[in-house]
Each structure stands twice: as C-alpha cells, then as structure tokens.
DNA sequence: GTTCATCATAAGAACAGGTTATTGCTGTCA
DNA sequence: TGACAGCAATAACCTGTTCTTATGATGAAC
C-alpha cells in the first residue's frame, strides 16, 4: 500500500475548490484522467469517498469537507517551509553559539557582540567562555558553532582564520618602572607569575621564556589576568600581559608596563569552526565582522 | 524543478532523529543510498543545507533544526488525516441535513430526532421544513442530504424508500358526528377545506375527490393542518387529515372524526436522497431508524 | 598503514504517474 | 425520442523518478 502524497492533497484541494475535474486538472496543469486517478487513489488510501460525482456536478462529501479544512492547513504549512528556507538562505539566522577563551573574552567580547548585533540583527548569540581544549571539544561535539582562540590550533577538522596579532608586554611593580627591560634569559631568573594550567596564554608565556611547561613550579598560578596583575601590584613578582588586556587590567593598579625588545613575544588570535559546518561562508563573514570589531578602524 | 514530497519529509524526520544515514534508512525500510539521494534532493529543493555531514556524525544545521520542528507538526497532521478517515469510516458522523414536509414534520419530527440522537450520537442534525418541490430542489442542489416526503416522487436521480402508509380521515364539525360518512362523490358536493397550493397533501386530497387541482376554488386555503381543523371546528366546512395528525390536531378542538369506506384515501411516506450520494448505505440505515421511530413497536 | 565505518555516487530495474484515446453515463435540445 | 454534448472513468502506453545493488571516497581508529 502506497502512502499519501502531496500531489494528491494538492489535487484534492484543487478539485474541492473547482468542483469540476476538468477545470481542477487544468489548474494543476495536468490532464483530467491524471486527476481522476489521483483522486481515486486518495479515496482508496483513506478508504473513504471524498466527492459525490453527480451527473452534472461534483460535490464534496461531509467527510471531504472536513478533510478539506485540514488539508488546506497542511498545504499552507508546507508552503511555509519553502518560505522559511528562502528567508534563511541569505542571511545567517537563528542561533550562533560562540566560544571564547578567558584571556580574550573580557577585552574583546563587548565589541564583538556589539558589532554582531549591529550587522546580524535577530541573531541569537550564545557565548561560552572556557579553555581552548574544552572549546575544541565542544566544537567537534557540535555544542558550539565557532570559537575565538589563540592560533594555531592545528586540528585538521577545524577551519581557522586569523583575526589579529598582538604583543605581550611585561608587567612589573611600579617601583621597577625605571629598570631596564629584561630579555628572555633574564626573565627566567625573575619570579614569573602565570595563569594556571590549561590556559594557552600560560604556555605562550612559558614558551617565550624557554621554560618547559612540565617543569615544576611553585603554586602561584592565578586563574585570571586580573589576579595576576593584582599579584604583581602586591610585589609578588612579574608577569606578561597581552596588549589588549593592558588598559583594562592596569587601570586601577599601580604597576609598570614595559615592552620587550625583539624578539617580542606575541600571540595570534583567530576564529575556528568545524570545516564540515555548512555555514562556513557565513562564519567567514562573521569573522570579518569580528575582525572589524576588534581592530579599530585606522581613521582613529 | 520537482516539488516537495512526503517521503522526503519522512526521511528527513528519520534522519534528524537517528543522526545516522544507515539507521535512518533502515527505519524507513529503504536502502542507505536511497535516503542519501532523497535528503540531497530535499536540500536542493529548499536550497539549504539541512545536515552537517561530519566524518563520524551527522548533525542538523541550525536551519535543519528549525525545519525539523515544523516538519514534525506537518507529518503528525497528515497522520491525523488517516485517523480522521478511519474514525469516520464506520459510523455516520458530521452533519446530516434532513428535509421534511410540513404535513409530516410536527407529528414525526420529535420521534425521529429523538431516535436518531440515540442511535447516532454526535450526529449534527439539521432540519429543513418546506414543500416537496423545494425539498427536491435543495436535495439535487446538495443543500440537504435527505428528505422525508410523500411518495412517489419519481425523480430518476433520487433514491426512495418507504417508511409508512397511513389513511386519511374525514374531519367535520362535531355536530355532524352521527351523519353517514360521505363517499367520494358526496364529498365533491361538500365544502372541502384544503391546504394552499404546493402542499402535496392538498393534491392527494383533491385526487381522492376526483377534483383536478387546476379547477378554480374559492380562496379558503389554509397554510397548516392546524388552521384547517380550526376552520372545520368553526363550521366552515370539512377536510381530510392524515391519521398521524389526528391526535395532535383534534386534541383541543370540537370536531368529529370519521373513517372512509373503501377505497380509503391514503398516502405513503418515504425518505429520499440523491442516488449519487456515497452515504447511501448510511442513509438506508438512517431510514430504518426513522421507520422504527415512527412505527411504534408492535408489542404495545 | 591497514582496516573499519560511513556517506556519496553510479548503473540498472521497478514503478509511479503522466499522456492521449476511448468508453459510458446523463441530461439537454431539436 | 433520438442525436448530441458534457463530463468523468477507464485503457494502453510512455516517461521520469526512485528504488536496489555495487562501488568509490574519506576520515577515524588501531
């Protein structure tokens, strides 16, 4: 036994409307016998007579009338599917779940969200802030759509685009302001305060100092850059800070900022997403918006 | 360009549910390639990607999710169509529009409706009371489904079944109670009060008296049997009354009832409907119910 | 590197659904 | 009343869709 078909319902609707096989068939752009057969088929499927064929007129039966009401709704719903597809084809709509690491989030997120809301109104933006490794896991699991992290990630299943590069600066107690800037070797001798395990920024800082991450260190790891700066201000040591964080984190704390001499430490921030994600093009545009948001226009 | 298909939506729903082409295909009892092709087809129709094909998992896109919700509703609505058909297959449901002539309605309608309500609960009964000719017109126009009239109607497009036969009795002023019952010839000499033009009962009475309807008569026609009896009670003449009306109409009026000698006048009441009406079987059952309602069981 | 899992593609087979031609019925009109 | 006209059902045939099985491609796991 075959199943109901949209065609049958559309033909049925036409016949209910025209009450005439020939005209209904014409309205459906098919021949009259084709319509007859399909209506008959539909009646057999439903095991009910839908039309009363009089000598000179075709009339809906009581059941046919009841059916016509529902069929109309169904067909309209189907039409709406196509409308829905057409509407969401052009612009990205619906939900965008974006992940971002903690050493970026506080400084870039406001600008990103502001700009995305402007360029993609109606987009439902969800933000997840956690460590790179977790973000990658959530990305591959499909729990988020994209993430802003430090590159490179080097996951073959993930697409990555660069957003910006930024230097790291040295943060030391305000009393050290005048002293010469240490080089990488000198830095190894100083008390370097770092984020706890898992933050990529920790690894980048260690890497700059030529210190292997596995090397045991005393338990002075902080859980945020804010804490790090506070610790420096308290004279507990020195630390590195990405440039974007400087303004926010040193605003109310007495510390001294110094740029390194070449080779300057730095990190590259980028956006990543599953390369299987069919919204790739949209995400690329999203990344452009984000880049625009965080790289202030040159005119200023 | 082809149109959307129910199959595609069902396949889509299955794949959205299983998130696995092979298992979804099995659930649909088709091969995996068939499912792949249909999903691809659906995506082309909607010009949107519905699933993100990862290496090890299939996942709905944002749009796919939005679609899945609507598709589910649509498919459930379609399933309900079949339920609806199945439910209305057995018993007559919905609306029954029944016509009945004025010389029957007051006497039989209460019993008919009572019995129909008992045997066909949930049936929405509409009643139309008017002359036979109008009923026939409305029947062929599809404005009513069946009618209770005096037979024969002799419309080839209408089905008719008998319900009962009943005699006509003579109604004359109470003062005439003892007088001999006139025969047809004597009746012609009396002042015979009749219903107005159009009532079949008028024609039947005239026919009994061998008077041609076209014959001019003074303007004493009444519009209801009640009025006729009142006129007889007032001494304006005599009239005929179908048996079923006797009890109701003479209850509070001083008139004398007399049966005719053979050949007694009578009429046959029947039910008629379009013979193209697919509910013919149901209507036959309805007629049985009606017959049962108006012919009191023999046991009493 | 090999194997496994999984989806896409290809080619042939089966079938649904279309067409035109024809039949059959009914009501209309001369 | 008999020929005709209108209309739906049926028949015969044809075509395009949509299955099936077989095979290819690709990424993940061992």
Biggest sheet of chain A, in brief?
Answer: 7 strands, mixed
Count interface residues per chain for the largest interface: A-B, 47 and 47 residues
| General form of chain A | rod-shaped
Low-confidence stretches of chain A: none
Q: Could you tell me the radius of gyration of chain A in angstroms?
A: 32 Å
Structural summary, described in words:
2 copies of one chain form a homodimer. With 300 residues, chain A is an alpha+beta fold. Chain A is built from 11 helices and 9 strands. In chain A, strands 3, 4, 5, 6, 7, 8 and 9 form a 7-stranded mixed β-sheet that branches. In chain A, helix 1 packs across helix 2. At the A-B interface, helix 4 of A face helix 4 of B. Chain A binds a DNA duplex (30 and 30 nucleotides) through helix 3.
In short:
Chain A is α+β, with helices and mostly antiparallel strands.
Topology readout:
Two copies of one chain form a homodimer.
Chain A: H1 6-18, H2 21-27, H3 32-46, E1 51-53, E2 58-60, H4 62-90, E3 95-100, H5 105-119, E4 124-129, H6 132-141, E5 146-151, E6 158-173, H7 184-189, H8 200-208, H9 225-233, E7 239-242, H10 243-249, E8 255-259, E9 266-274, H11 280-294
Parallel strand pairs in A: 3-4, 3-5
Antiparallel strand pairs in A: 1-2, 5-9, 6-7, 6-8, 6-9
Chain A binds a DNA duplex (30 and 30 nucleotides) through residues 2, 5, 7, 20-22, 30-38, 40-41, 53-56, 58, 156-157.
């Amino acid at each position: 036994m075959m199943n109901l078909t949209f065609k049958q319902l559309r033909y049925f609707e036409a016949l209910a409307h025209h009450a005439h096989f020939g005209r209904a068939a014409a309205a459906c752009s098919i021949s009259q016998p084709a319509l007859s057969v399909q209506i008959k088929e539909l009646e057999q499927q439903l095991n009910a007579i839908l039309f009363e064929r009089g000598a000179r007129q075709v009339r809906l039966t009581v059941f046919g009338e009841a059916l016509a009401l529902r069929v109309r709704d169904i067909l309209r719903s189907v039409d709406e599917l196509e409308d829905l597809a057409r509407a969401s084809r052009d612009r990205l709509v619906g939900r965008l779940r974006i992940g971002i690491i903690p050493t970026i989030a506080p400084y870039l997120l406001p600008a990103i969200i502001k700009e995305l809301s402007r360029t993609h109104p109606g987009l439902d933006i969800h933000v997840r802030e956690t460590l790179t490794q977790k973000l990658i896991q959530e990305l591959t699991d499909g729990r988020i759509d994209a993430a802003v992290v430090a590159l490179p990630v080097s996951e073959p299943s993930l697409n990555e685009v660069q957003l910006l590069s930024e230097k790291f600066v040295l943060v030391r107690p305000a009393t050290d302001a005048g002293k010469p800037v240490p080089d990488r070797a000198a830095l190894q001798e100083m008390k370097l305060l770092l984020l706890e395990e898992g933050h990529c920024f920790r690894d980048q800082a260690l890497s700059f100092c030529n210190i292997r991450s596995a090397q045991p260190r005393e338990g002075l790891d902080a859980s945020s850059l804010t804490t790090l700066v506070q610790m420096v201000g308290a004279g507990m040591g020195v630390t590195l800070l990405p440039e974007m964080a400087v303004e926010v984190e040193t605003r109310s704390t007495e510390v001294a900022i110094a740029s390194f001499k070449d080779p300057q430490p730095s990190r590259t921030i980028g956006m990543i997403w599953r390369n299987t994600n069919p919204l790739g093009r949209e995400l690329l545009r999203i990344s452009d918006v984000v880049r625009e948001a965080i790289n202030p226009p040159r005119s200023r």
